[in-house]
Write a structure and sequence with these properties.
By secondary structure, the protein is mainly α. It has one domain. The chain has helices at 2-34, 36-43, 49-81, 83-102, 107-110, 112-143. α3 packs antiparallel against α4. The model has no long low-confidence stretch (mean pLDDT 86).
Length: 147
């Protein structure tokens, strides 16, 4: 019975951690969308605000294209090196990419490099998110008691 309680406690911790990570990602997405009209011209200057906004919103879509690659990468190495280790790496990578986006200089400060860096960081976010979500959910099912 004590072993079952220990497994349940560990499963609850992993589930809370996984859902917190996912929750922060969703919060990041909501904030990103909320400030899109303000930030879009800072990274995608154009004579048309609509064009700037559409280009900015495409950076969200770009992140989704990296998710399958992240899933393959973190799934493969999770099997070989351990799911907890790879899950931690994905959480760390996601956090670093998100923080770096917050500190990016604008197009007016460093030119097109700002746009390129934003796109690269959004791709990295998508890549790491796949490991965060897949790894977290797999860990939850592995550490949960069978009943």
């Amino acid at each position: 019975m004590a072993n079952n309680d220990k497994k349940l406690s560990e499963a609850i911790k992993v589930a809370i951690s996984a859902n917190l990570g996912w929750g922060f990602e969703l919060f990041d997405l909501v904030v990103y969308l909320y400030v899109a009209t303000t930030i879009a011209p800072l990274f995608f200057p154009s004579t048309s605000r609509i064009a700037s906004l559409l280009e900015f919103l495409l950076t969200i879509v770009i992140g989704y294209f990296a998710r399958p690659l992240g899933g393959i990468f973190f799934g493969h190495y999770g099997d070989k090196l351990g799911r907890k280790r790879m899950w931690f790496i994905s959480l760390l990578g996601m956090g670093i990419a998100t923080i770096l986006i917050g500190f990016l200089p604008t197009y007016y400060q460093i030119g097109v490099l700002a746009t390129v860096l934003l796109i690269i960081l959004r791709i990295l976010q998508g890549f790491f998110l796949a490991g965060e979500w897949g790894g977290g959910m797999t860990l939850v099912t592995e550490v949960a008691p069978s009943n």
